[in-house]
Amino acid sequence: MTRKALLSVYNKDGIVEFAQQLIEKDWEIISTGGTARLLKESGLPVKEVSEITGFPEILDGRVKTLNPKIHGGILATRDNENHQQELSEHGIHHIDMVVVNLYPFKEVVSRENADLEEALENIDIGGPTMIRAAAKNYRHVIVVVNPQRYGDIMEELDQKGSLGESLRYRLASEAFAHTAEYDAFITAYFNREFQEEGTFPPQVVLPYERVQNLRYGENPQQKAAYYRDINYEEGDLSSYRQWQGKELSFNNINDLNAAWELVKEFEDTTVVAVKHTNPCGVGTATSVLEAYQKAYDSDPVSIFGGIVAVNREIDPETAEEMNKIFLEVIAAPSFHPQALKILENKPETRLLTIPLKPSSYRQWDFKKTSGGLLIQDMDIEPVFVQAEDAVTGQKPGTKQVKDLEFALKVVKHVKSNAIVIASGEQTLGIGAGQMNRVNAAKIALEHAGEKSVGAVMASDAFFPFPDTAEKAVQAGIKAIVQPGGSLKDRESIEVCDRHQVAMVFTGKRYFEH
What we know:
five-stranded parallel β-sheet, Cytidine Deaminase, domain 2, alpha/beta, 20 strands, 3 domains, elongated, Rossmann fold
């Protein structure tokens, strides 16, 4: 009995060659629309679907394969006598292979000025239905959604004359993933366009594609892989390009995300050094070299083997300084060609470029729990400090406001409880991830040492007791920024007033867990 293959693809890469090879193996080709035209123009014998169904394509092509003579041929179980009898009674023939990929919904809605009508017209109906039918019946029907699989299929047909259970199963798994991803993208589009502001959908489907397998996870005993959102845009971490160095590890990517999200907070030239997802040094200056030197001097010990993110091009002078120590990753929007040449001397250092562009759609932040998922909006509102928001008699001066804003941007990205000491747009001490705020302050102040005198302090949440303010004034801090809102705010304010220290309340908390 002649085997039949139904070919209906949007991505036509390799389809003519694949059809030719099937025909040479005595397969009969059934096709639709543009695929049928292409195959005929290539001189290949093709039956139109309408010849099989006895019914023309209608509704501008919206209905062409939704017919029992197609789906009966795909879904019939070959070893079921009742199925075979029904096929015979209705004049339905087996379809042994379904080669289908779908309308380019993602590409269409990603275009500038794409409208709803265009989006709706590019929602494929017949394609997913055929794919799912063939995948359900994979033991009897070969289903192909990926043109890169054509070679694997022909190789096994050449060797065995048919496909074994293993390859059929893998093809079916790919097929279900293909339709699931497609539906997830459509769902994401509708959620993005029509979800009421400030609300979340009752169900969430997340279309992600694997970028690479990783050597291991956070620890060698854990397996890991890196996936990216198929909605990703330039400016997202997933759009990075790697210029040199080994593949990124699980921890590299995690740390890099922390560094990149922090450096994006700054408009002025800024360098961020991160270790174990916490910043260990941040500096802002008029040049990249000066900003790097500030970040380095913030903590020369911790930056070794760290992740460095820069929001400007890496110039040769900065590359020379970076070349003096080992850095795991350096990320920036671009590298001067000479800087790349200099950093070739550190082949183990990974060099990445990432565009500095804001996302054009609403982004969510995810935190996995056992058996669940927490979702929240990304906190992308600009961080700013105003002198008039001071709650003390002493108001911060212009330079102090600048440093308070700098410190607040940094503390937003430090694991809570968090305290940052800064001066001259440079971090001097960072207290991260402590179970109480006064210990976070103690760590930050101890690291800053004598440099605390005249510096500023930022806290990611309110002071529950006056002890943190007391530690600050004892160390010589001259201005503090915190959200406020504690029942004991008055006590902290009084501590500051007694020592002519300015304290600003922002009303915004920046917990980072």
